[in-house]
Write a structure and sequence with these properties.
The chain is of the alpha/beta class. It has 2 domains: 167 residues, 3-Layer(aba) Sandwich (Rossmann fold), CATH 3.40.50; 140 residues, Isocitrate/Isopropylmalate dehydrogenase-like (Rossmann fold, 3-Layer(aba) Sandwich). The protein is built from 13 helices and 11 strands. Helix 9 links the parallel strand 7 and strand 8. The radius of gyration is 21 Å and the shape is globular.
């Protein structure tokens, strides 16, 4: 396990938060819960019926978790009324609220956070990103002052001298398909904040492209140049530069030769990709070929931490994302 994850777990334990795991239909949820409880990383709530829980937790010790059966729990009524109140402008009826929240535990989990009964949610082992994020945007909504929810992977590359000792944020690698310059600038600023919260080092942000400082001419390059300008203007104290090719962004010798006047080139630890294709392909390449640990997709911009999992995740991945969610929840308070 990386030093990064050790440090995040230690911070999670120091101020324990309550995290909801709504996927009681997946055994990995219970394997992760067992580890989280044993290591005392967080308080865990699992949503499910006794049948679902018994079926999927056989042989595992989850006695320290709070199991909530939404069909019989005494606060369900309160949550359903809250849901109706939040969505009344959209015409949500009590019957629809009941059907939605009891039919999809992710809605129920978000209602628990909104009601103040939990600090965050981790889901997505067997649900799509859209199914994880739709309920959170309807119920928890975005952070004040943030217009965009985006997602990043925290990458820990073994034996790597680049970035922050091999630790990087790759964004957006999970959510925003083809961001315009304003969105790209927001993703950069949010990712820098996330990096500083989680890694506890100064963020150095590279806006990536197939071009470095005008080496290629294309509308895609113009987009990155404009995003860099917007981001610098809105965040004058942030170290951010672009457009930079990947090698110019992280390799000191290449940065010196391709962008000699840049304070970012050769030193970047936050990599902002021009679109979701590049970000998603990039993180998977590094994960599989460099044997990197990849934590995420971690969301940013939601008022409380709601995190998605990759459907190929392991129980250990869930443990890592729960620890990250705890640290985000400490900051959200």
């Amino acid at each position: 396990m990386s030093k990064f994850l050790d440090s995040v777990k230690a911070r999670a334990k120091a101020d324990k938060k309550t995290i909801v795991l709504p996927e009681s239909m997946d055994r990995r949820t219970f394997e992760a819960a067992e580890t989280i409880l044993k290591e005392d990383i967080a308080n865990i709530i699992i949503i499910g019926t006794p049948e679902e829980v018994n079926e999927n937790s056989k042989g595992l010790d989850i006695s320290g978790a709070t199991i909530i059966n939404p069909f019989t729990y005494e606060k369900t009524e309160e949550y359903l009324n809250l849901f109706v109140e939040l969505r009344k402008s959209k015409g949500l009826t009590y019957e629809q609220a009941r059907e939605t929240a009891l039919g999809d535990y992710m809605y129920y989990a978000c209602l628990m956070v909104k009601a103040g009964d939990a600090d965050g949610v981790v889901s997505g082992a067997c649900h799509s990103t859209a199914n994880t994020l739709r309920p959170s945007l309807q119920i928890i909504k975005t952070k004040p002052g943030v217009k965009l929810v985006s997602a990043f992977f925290l990458m820990v590359v073994p034996d790597c001298e680049y970035g922050a000792n091999g630790t990087f944020i790759f964004a957006d690698s999970g959510l925003e398909q083809n961001p315009d310059p304003e969105k790209l600038a927001t993703i950069a600023a949010c990712s820098a904040e996330s990096f500083e919260l989680l890694v506890q080092e100064e963020a150095i942000v590279a806006m990536l492209s197939h071009s470095t400082k005008g080496s290629a001419k294309h509308a895609d390059v113009d987009k990155v140049v404009e995003a860099t300008r917007i981001c610098k203007e809105a965040n004058p104290n942030l170290k951010v530069d672009g457009e930079l090719q990947l090698d110019a962004a992280i390799v000191p010798s290449v940065g010196c030769s391709k962008a000699p006047d840049s304070s970012v080139a050769g030193k970047a630890n936050v990599l902002v990709f021009p679109d979701l294709d590049a970000g998603n392909i990039g993180y998977k390449l590094v994960q599989r070929l460099a044997k990197a640990e990849a934590y995420g997709p971690v969301t940013q911009g939601i008022a409380m931490p709601i995190n998605d999992l990759s459907r190929g995740c392991s129980a250990d991945d869930i443990v890592g994302v729960v620890a990250i969610t705890c640290v985000q929840a400490q900051a959200a308070k």
